[in-house]
Specification:
The complex is a heterodimer of chains A (340) and B (404). Chain A has 340 residues and is of the alpha/beta class. Chain A has two domains: 206 residues, D-Maltodextrin-Binding Protein, domain 2, CATH 3.40.190.10; 96 residues, D-Maltodextrin-Binding Protein, domain 2 (3-Layer(aba) Sandwich), CATH 3.40.190. Chain A is built from 14 helices and 14 strands. The chains are: A alpha/beta (340), B mainly alpha (404).
Chain lengths: 340, 404
Amino acid sequence: MKKSILLGTLAVAGLTAGIASAQSTMEQVQARGSLKCGSNEGLAGFASPDANGNMQGFDVSLCRAIAVAVLGDAQAVEFVPLTSQTRFTALAAGEVDVLVRNSTWTFSRDTDLKLDFVGVNYYDGQGFMVRSDLGVSSARELDGATVCIQTGTTTELNLADFFRVNAISYEPVPVATNAEGQQQYLAGACDVYTTDISGLAATRATFEAPGDHVILPEVVSKEPLGPVVRHGDSAWGDIVRWTLNAMIAAEEYGVTSANVAEMAAAPTMNPEINRLLGTEGELGAMMGLSKDWAVQIISAVGNYGEVFEAYIGENTPVGLARGLNAQWTQDGLLYSPPFR
Amino acid sequence: MAEVTLPPRDGFRLSQLLYDARYRSLTIQVVAAMLLMLSLAWLVDNTVQNLAALGKDFSFAFLWTTAGYDINQQIIPFSSQDTHARAALVGILNTLVVAFMGCILATVIGVLAGVLRLSKNFVVSGIMTFYVEAMRNTPLLIWILIVFAVMTEATPQPRDFREGGGASMILWDSVAISNRGVFVPKPVWGEGSGLVLAVFLLSLAAIFILRRVARKRQEQTGQQLPVVRLSLALFFLPTLLVFFVLGRPITLDYPALGGFNFVGGIQIRNSLIALWLALSLYTSAFIAEIVRSGILAVSRGQTEAAFALGMQPNRTMQLVILPQALRVIIPPLISQFLNLTKNSSLALAVGYMDVRSTLGGITINQTGREIEGILLLGTFYLIVSLIISSLMNYYNSGVKLKER
């Protein structure tokens, strides 16, 4: 008993040593010269290495945008691949500065886990994927099915709720990573693979014959996915939140990576754009960033819509429609608070 | 006036603590103990401070909240509405099941491999040497993944068992080996099955008594009873007789395809099989070496003496060598059982829901109680290990050399 306590406390002391220092996250990132970003260990379109081994994707772009805002360099990011089980512990222990890993914003994670979800970069919902030759057209027909599920996720809880509420039975097959779930599903060890619909689409895009698999129409949960930081460093949370908002606002005002240099050269007719791009006011300085922080983000990474289309949009293998993730002006939910 | 030389008695000086051999060891021990306690206190204090800085408290109340997740292999009923404590209990039972099955199979394979490795037949001992060296020189996790991959990739899917699917059940359509596990018939206990069971247990007791009687008889008179034949008869005949007289109260529920999967029967999941086989194979390699060393530790003269008395080699092994070898084998065997039990925590790799996966995995993840969960987990493994080693030590005290 004594020994296990000793080892436990040793481990805890080691894990939390990073937090004990008085430096703010911002100072730590600047001293290190790179941003430690907790990312998915591999999910096509969201975070996966390209042919040259560079991480790229929708979530990865947000990490790069934060790095641009804080360090002025989109490449100054150290990606830490985390599983669904290890992600929050790694963030709480200070192993990563920010977590952008398809993580659902929930009440208990925000409060009890002492994390701060600073925004939503993808409005998602949980769905089910099955082989089309099973002839299943609704998730309510899945009585007795074997379901592959990533452990340590909200989808695990939604799954239990969905089958209990509909009074049908299922057999859960827990898997640790998306890759393992994909392998089990393709081997037929489970009939159904369930995760967020964006994740299903991304996974299906990597199959040999994506057309043989259907995503069932039911969306059984709300899964607002967004970047997460630790409780207690609000200044750092502000930087992450407004980096995301800058990308969303830029799309709303039509600022793209192509025209941002031109728009930032001189004040435009739209004062909102001027404040965003730093040609009017001192918004960057209020967060301890440079005046042209948003210009740098948009020219290096692009606005929200550009990033969406480049990695997960309808012209990519993942092929997701904007849906809820359209601007509020186009019946979506994206709504950046004003830059003022 | 005679001079008396008394030792100088000028009281106790502080420097004596360090320079006087009588006190020095005590001083060092006290200082070391204080340093140890100080570092412990520092660790605890550091943890408490960091937890406070994070705004987290230390509480086990999460154990009584709703778990919200499902577990596939349940020995006691469990639903997603039960508490985290019950989920932990389900996981504990799953851990104990795989550890128990693993210890038995590992011992059986290990003893066989250990004895065969000493065989004079070059091929047999060569194969066993290869087996032992291959197993114990590769990581356990790899074996778990290999067995699991074979089970999922090389076996047919349940839907292949349909007409024209190319797969069929074995043993007169009673057992299905699929990539979701092995489905075997389940006994259904009808009315009167209790009586059958009671008769079976009674005949087991009768076999036990018969063996004692036979041994006593042999020791006293030298006459041997046909123990094996009598035991076999006792094992089968009374139970079968009662079974048929009562009109076959125990029936079998055969697995059959229904909907997405097999229904009925008992499903032995691939995760359990993979973990069980891999743990057994891996640990048996170590046990084989322990058995071999135990046998080699018995002096050669014992074998020669037995042969001189005209004993057959297998009787020599059974009656002379193994009983003496056990004294050497048991103590290291205990640590192999402990290793196997603790290694079962690799279950997560194949999605087997042991206590590491429920309490130490999903529960910690859903509640964010890392320290509490890991402490509970450590305590559980500690208690189980202590129980196993005390049981084995009890057995060891029975077989060890009696020193008088």
